[in-house]
Amino acid sequence: MTSPVLPSDSDDAVLEAVATGIPSALSDLGHLVRIPGMAWPAFDQTQLERSAEAVAELAAGTGVFDEVRVLRSGIPGTDEQGQPAVLATRKARNGKPTILLYAHHDVQPPGEDGLWETPPFEPTVRDGRLYGRGAADDKAGIMAHIASIRAVSEVLGDDLDLGIAMFIEGEEEYGSRSFAQFLSDNKEALRADAIVVADSGNWDSATPGLTVSLRGNARFTMRVRTLDHASHSGMFGGAVPDAMMATVTLLSTLWNADGSVAVEGMTERDAPTPDYTEATLRDEAGLLPATTPIGDGTILSRIWNKPSVTVIGIDATSVAAASNTLLPEATVVISARVAPGQTGKDAYEALESHLRAHVPFGAELTFSDVDLGDGFLVDTSGWAVALTRDAMRDGYGVPPIDLGVGGSIPFIADLVREFPTAQILVTGVEDPHSRAHSPNESLHLDTFRHAVATEALLLTRMNATEL
Fold it and tell me: Contact at 8 Å (CB) between 350 and 356?
């Protein structure tokens, strides 16, 4: 059982310490953004090691943790090691709870430099936002943890009895391949009563969101073959199906005329959603004036509660190398978002069955590189959820909104499996204009300030909680 915690005199002091510490936190965030730490083997891995060391130095610098380590775990089923993660721990005292704070220090590749208005790894402030790769996703999550710990430690000093574990992963963008093994290897050090996953978003730049549902994912590669060699399109076109024709025909069966998913066996969740207009969608997603939304039902139900299927990559003859040739094979990468309540495995099996059943012209299909993740539904009845909502209200100055998220955080299923009694709180520093994973990614500075204030209040109030 826990005793209820009400705002105290410490709250005002902590909020003042947060405000004083924001310039330093943003400076440290800028330093992290300058480190191009990407987990893909094609990139310089020493930068990822440098990133982990920088985070470890920040954690140690708080003076709060008993131990700070940079660790790796093995990737199950291989002889490889995962990417460097930071694990910082302090034990709870006097019967107080323990909280685990999660974020990740690796980032997405920047893409084409020409699409960035300023260099991706040079943090730049303009119009109230900090631009740079990782500025929002998820180095701001790291600094929200560090800045809130600094403020709470400054105010509470020796009265800080809360147990804190901080796990900063190094390969979230690369599939968290060693995540489950890391949890197993460090289970006792990571064990907590509540877990904050700071890798989500908010309703808008001024209104906090507590993520209570996440879609799962099913991503895979599909190769389509119709010929054993390329043939002249003038000699055989009209009688011989090329791989591109078969691929386009097959892919078109995945959607209904309105763009909703047409795959039997992919389910949807029936749950209410807040009001959200098409005008807001157009603004936040960047829809062109003549482009219409797809799907049916409320807009947020399409994003939060229904499946989606996207072709995110294709290998075929490039435009520059185009010739009058029937293509023998084409390869596509398909990424599906899976409604909460359905497993990634079941959704993938439905997709593969659909594609095999609808393959045209007897084309040969090969499936590979299958990556699956389950969705997540939060139990919102727990004491830590109530504390978090109150902290959000007081940190932002407006009540939070329960959010569903169309994206996926598959490793949450690993957290639930390893720590079934822990309350999982999915928060974040992003707003709808952060453009995570895209060129010109940015962090709204006021949102960051409010997020730090929220987490600092949460830590302060958890420190006053009796288990």
Answer: no
CA distance 131 to 210: 24
* Residue 294 resides in a domain: no
CA pair distance 433, 132, nearest whole angstrom: 13
Where among 347, 372, 397 does a domain terminate? 372
The DSSP secondary structure of 63-88, one letter per residue, reads S--SEEEEE--B-TTSS-B---EEEE
Q: How many domains does the chain have?
A: 2
221: which residues sit within 8 A by CB, 6+ positions away? 331, 332, 333, 334, 367, 368, 369
- The structure's pTM equals 0.87
CATH number of the domain encompassing residue 262: 3.30.70.360
Structural domain of 349 = 216-269+306-372
According to DSSP, the β-strands at 209-214 and 325-326 are: unpaired
Residue 2 lies in a domain: no
Where does residue 369 rank: exposed (0-12), middle (13-18), buried (19+ CB within 10 A)?
A: exposed
Indicate whether 301 belongs to any domain. no
Max Cα separation, the chain? Answer: 84
pLDDT tens figures, 374-419 = 998 888 899 999 999 999 999 999 999 999 988 888 888 899 999 9
Residue 365 to residue 450: CA distance in whole angstroms: 50
CA atoms within 13 A on the CB side of 194: 29
CATH number of the domain that residue 14 is part of: 3.40.630.10
Q: Are residues 224 and 104 in the same domain?
A: no
pLDDT in tens, 106-145: 999 999 999 999 999 999 999 999 999 999 999 999 999 9
Within a domain: 124: yes
pLDDT tens sequence across 340-357 = 999 999 999 999 999 999
